[in-house]
Amino acid sequence: MPPESDSQDVDSTPPQAVFDQEDQGELMNEKKDEGDETNLDVFWDEPIEQDPSNPMNWSSARKWTIVATVSWVTFLTPLASSMFAPGVTQVMTDFHSDSVLLATFVVSVYVLGFAFGPLIVAPWSEYSGRVVVYNTCNMLFFVFNIASALAPNMASLVVFRFLDGVAGVAPTTIGSGTVADIIPTKSRGRAMALWSLGPLFGPIIGPVVGGYLVEARNWRWVFWVLSIVGGFSTIAFFLIVPETHAPTLLERKAARLRKETGNMGYKSQLDDGIPTKQRFLQSFLRPSKMLLFSPIVASMCIYIAVLYGLLYILFTTFTEVFEGQYGFSSGASGLSFLGSGAGMLLGLLYAATLSDRMIRLRIQRNEEPQPEDRLPWYFTIPGSLSVPAGLFIYGWGTDKQVHWIVPEIGNAVTGFGMILTLMGIQTYLVDAFTRHAASAIAACTVLRSLAGGLLPLCGLKLYDKLGLGWGNTLLAFLALGVSPIPFLFNLFGAQLRARSRAPS
Hints:
Layout: H1 21-33, E1 40-42, H2 60-83, H3 88-94, H4 100-116, H5 118-128, H6 130-149, H7 154-168, H8 170-182, H9 188-216, H10 220-240, H11 246-261, E2 266-268, H12 276-293, H13 295-315, H14 318-325, H15 338-354, H16 357-364, H17 377-399, H18 405-432, H19 437-454, H20 456-482, H21 484-499
Parallel strand pairs: 1-2
Helix pairs in contact: 2-4, 2-8, 2-9, 2-10, 3-4, 4-7, 4-19, 5-6, 5-12, 5-19, 6-7, 6-8, 6-10, 8-9, 8-19, 9-15, 9-18, 12-13, 12-19, 13-18, 13-19, 13-20, 13-21, 15-18, 17-18, 17-20, 17-21, 18-19
């Protein structure tokens, strides 16, 4: 799905540099002869649209190779969140425990790592660049999977799973920033659709693979397989993905000029002059400040967190329903997740086809594209209504014990709505906060991971009290209650953005 154009992104292009490289050199020499240094802004070489060091000008093949590599790792790390789930029974037997709460927690603790990791990963990427964060976290993901495979007891397994989640959250947190770095606005929707698939599709494929792997070998082999695949991915990522963060690239260029010329006046045009320690503190606090003080980020994050929590509560019922009620084997029960996966795949195709439509129409009319163009009615209405509809179908289909295809259709409808909602909102946040897209997505990841990690702990009790029919009906009404949020932002988001400012 190559983009139609690699032209400079209208909403992420800083003002042009005052001097081109040759003029800067001449002026620097004059000032040096006078025994004086002056500030010389460093930016992309003129013409900006042809500078090969500008990531926006890289070839379509290179850009989509980078997006595909980041998307693969974004799929792999969420895969690890649920791939281990079919082996929990074996773990409890090996470690002589019968605690239902602990059995749930050893799976969900990985998602809790996803909640804490973004607070470190996102500011680190905006401070030091993307690549150092990716490569470090990919290596730690590899190491902690090996540690989990060798865990001698339940306590160590819980700790290693948590640390694995902290490291594995990097691509789901800063992948959107990489997309914003290299893909122009009018083609960004397709790239975001590919990248958005990982956080939802990974947890669905995980139990399918894990179920058969545990049945054929044992639970430790889940981690051995993840470490092997993670090791190869780490090497491939290191070789394929370069630095894409414009402020980091320009700062490196300025540092090179300072070293080559001896003139300390060279500085990146994107350098705001904030002292290093203060900038690091600002970067570290930015995701939390955006979550607490930006109405746009807070509302969208709460909506995603609610839906994500509902999805993970739903997942807790699959083993009991499809093994106990429909007689699936322990290996085949993982296939029950494919209903959600099929719906998400359809949602991806829908989103990839229509996500950039409004942006292109704006450009054809010579109008400035707006972030709200990512939330048209043909995204917000089907996405918002599909989730509660799917929960309702699944709940009453299982409650009345009709053929298993009916609850699977309900799961497909839920999956369709989830991918549309997640993709639309994340693309909206990237377009609204392009320079700090990683921090905005980090805030979203924190809340949704907390919901996904904690809400399943009470999910089984909900179904014990209300049953599958009324329990899922309650979840459906909760999803319906928050469904107007993206639609309202489509109508009033521009006015809200005009009155608010993203935290520094």
